[in-house]
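Review form for a predicted model. The reviewer records the input and the model, then writes brief findings.
Reviewer: anonymous (R2)
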Amino acid sequence: MFTFTLRRLILTIPTLLFISFVIFMIVKLSPSDPTGNLPLTIPPEVREQIREALGANDTLLVQYGRWLEQFFWIEPRVYLERTFGWDLGTEGEIRLLSYQTRSPVMDLIMQRMPQTLWVVGVAYLVGIAIALPIGVISAYRQYSVFDQVGTFVSMVGFSVPPFFSGVVVIVIFSVLISTDSVFWLPSVYDTTHQVTDWESFKYQFRQMIMPVMVLALQITAQISRFTRASMLDNLNQDYVRTARAKGVRERTVVLLHVLRNSMIPVVTVIALGIPSIFGGAIITEQVFKVNGLGQLLIIAIQGGDVPTVQTLTFIFAILIVLFNLIADVLYGILDPRIRYD
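Model under review:
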């Protein structure tokens, strides 16, 4: 297992380099200008000086090498200096700068990361916590009323896009339903809100309910269907009949033997869904005005902010590669029969 993990980690280096080059070329060849958002009254020679200062007139290979250096060498050192107070000599070095705000891209990402983790992270945990029991019970009680209801909810989660379900829950809980002229849930997510006491925590909880509800519905629909299908496939195996014939308790058969073997394909869905949910949160964050990474990416695309788009897209790619590796490692933990020679 250690050899396999080390080999996969080494393989990720050329993989990420290739992905970074593809992302860089696709974004860089788009019709964008670092001075596009500046006032039209700025003279052309001043615009040209700004392009020179940002390195936009250099060759593509020079720009690509500079971007890699900033992403993998300068930005991590800056973060270590801020976190641990070390002096790693980053003063005076040029960081990844946003075309729109002229501020470091990583600073923008770190500012918005907590909002995304609050909403998307909680939604993913809630979705998994709901989906696994639904999938197990639906498979064990196949064609029962519970299974039919779970299938219906899953179909709704698969079929209804978040821009529609988000608007529906806003209309219901923030427009139609009210108590003493006070709406149940806020329709706009307040990113400036800070939790300092019980009352502020309750408000934070209330404003998270709707975006978490919309995201968790999609997550629950996907994972519960995979769990149900995998459980049904294992419930009819010979080892299950053997365990029952030996007098093993039904709870032990289902939860220990069947569920453990059924989790192998489910782990793939859960692991690979973690980075993809950040991309899926783009629409939900726009609907509820959550000032997170998804909204940052949309604003950067609309404004032609090449460094921000490149950095965010590459971070999503890194997460996909990383969690793919984690899923492969978890295979061997869940099923000792799997060996990586």
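Findings: The first strand starts at residue 178 and ends at 179.
Further findings: The domain at 2-32+99-334 is CATH 1.10.3720.10 (MetI-like fold).
Recommendation: see findings above.
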